[in-house]
Design a protein that fits this description.
alpha/beta, 4-stranded parallel β-sheet, about 45% helix, Rossmann fold, globular
C-alpha cells in the first residue's frame, strides 16, 4: 500500500538530545521555579514522575492532562490545582533555558519540508506527556513550528502514551489513514519501532538511540536524515 503519511518522533529524532541530560536540565529548571511557590524540589520531581507514569499507563478513559493532574493532586493536595498557572508560567518564561541541554540539526527542518514538497502528509508523534506549549517550544528548538505538522500530540489532546498501540491507533483515526499507509520515524526502539506491530513501516534514527531492552535493531531501515530521504524515495 502506498505510503502517504510520515510520523516523526521529536525528542532524540528531530531534536537531538541525550535524554538523561535533558531530563536533568528540565527538572532542575522547573524545581527552581516552583520552589518559589512552596514545592520542595525532590518532592516536586517525584510528584511529576508519578504523574508521568500515570499517563504512560492511561487506559483512555481520560485525557493525559487529566490523568497527570489527578495524580499530582493525590501527592500535593487540592492546592496543586490552584498552582497550575505557576507551571504554565514556567513553560512560558523558563522552559527555553532547557534548550541548552539539546542539540540542533538543520536537516530536521529541511527534511520535513522536502517530504511535504513530495506530497507526503507529516505529523508529529511525540510522546504526549507535555503540554502543548512545551511541545511547540521543543519544535522551535528543532527549527520547526506547529504549522509544519498536520497533527502533533500533547497531553491535552491524547488519551494514551507510547508504547501503547492505542496511541498509534488514535493517530491513525485522527488522520483517517490505515497503518500500512504510514511510516514512523524515531530513535526509541521500544516506543517508536513498536508501530510496526500495527503494520506501519518504521525507520530508526540511531544517532540518539534509546534501546532500554537491548533489542537487535539490525532488521530496521535506519540512518540519518539523508538516509531517510533515500528510503522514502524507495517507497515511491
Amino acid at each position: 500500500m502506498k505510503t502517504r503519511v510520515i510520523l516523526f518522533d521529536l525528542d532524540g529524532t528531530l531534536l537531538p538530545m541525550d535524554f538523561h541530560v535533558f531530563v536533568k536540565a528540565y527538572f532542575g529548571e522547573i524545581a527552581k521555579r516552583l520552589a518559589q511557590h512552596g514545592y520542595e524540589p525532590n518532592a516536586l520531581i517525584d510528584g511529576i514522575w508519578q504523574g508521568m507514569y500515570a499517563m504512560m499507563k492511561n487506559d483512555g478513559k481520560k485525557r493525559n492532562e487529566e490523568v497527570f493532574w489527578d495524580t499530582f493532586v493525590t501527592v500535593f493536595g487540592e492546592q496543586a490545582r490552584a498552582d497550575e498557572p505557576h507551571f504554565e508560567r514556567f513553560y512560558i518564561e523558563d522552559f527555553d533555558k532547557v534548550q541548552a541541554a539539546c542539540g540542533f540539526d538543520p536537516k530536521a527542518a529541511t527534511t520535513v519540508a522536502a517530504l511535504k514538497e513530495k506530497g507526503f502528509r507529516v505529523a508529529l508523534a511525540t510522546n504526549p506527556v507535555f503540554p502543548s506549549i512545551a511541545t511547540e517550544k521543543r519544535m522551535q528548538w528543532a527549527g520547526l513550528n506547529k504549522d509544519d505538522f498536520e497533527l502533533f500530540t500533547t497531553y491535552e489532546n491524547s488519551r494514551y502514551c507510547k508504547p501503547n498501540l492505542e496511541y498509534y491507533k488514535d493517530i491513525l483515526s485522527q488522520l483517517g489513514v490505515r497503518a500500512e499507509e504510514c511510516l514512523m520515524v524515531g530513535n526509541d526502539v521500544s516506543e517508536d519501532m513498536v508501530a510496526a506491530q500495527l503494520g506501519m513501516k518504521v525507520f530508526l534514527m540511531p544517532a540518539c538511540l534509546l534501546n532500554k531492552d537491548n533489542k537487535d535493531v539490525s532488521a530496521y531501515p535506519q540512518g540519518d536524515f539523508d538516509d531517510l530521504l533515500t528510503y522514502v524515495e524507495s517507497l515511491l
